[in-house]
UniProtKB/TrEMBL annotation:
Signal peptide: none
Domain LysM positions: 45-93
SUPFAM superfamilies: LysM domain
Annotated Gene3D superfamilies: LysM domain
Matching InterPro entries: LysM, LysM_dom_sf
UniProt name for this protein: LysM domain-containing protein
Amino acid sequence: MLKHYRLTNKKRFFAFLVLVFAAFYLAGMIISAGAVSDKPQAPKMIRVQKGDTLWEIAQQHCTGDIRDNIYRIRQINQLSSWIIHEGQILLLP
């Protein structure tokens, strides 16, 4: 038969649970802090294919707002217009 356990000291049990949750919380914070790199990432380079547009490139290769990404792509590559050409190398943020 199964043995039934009875809590004799509820305060001690509650303190134990608080310590366990605190330990898991701190471990998660330490692990997540280590996952974020402080080093800036090198920009990704792509070669423009026939029919590519800045909108499609930003949509496929970048995260976040597409318009912001297009603006950043134009700034990084010093593009004065939206026109890109087949074979052109673009740096992506």
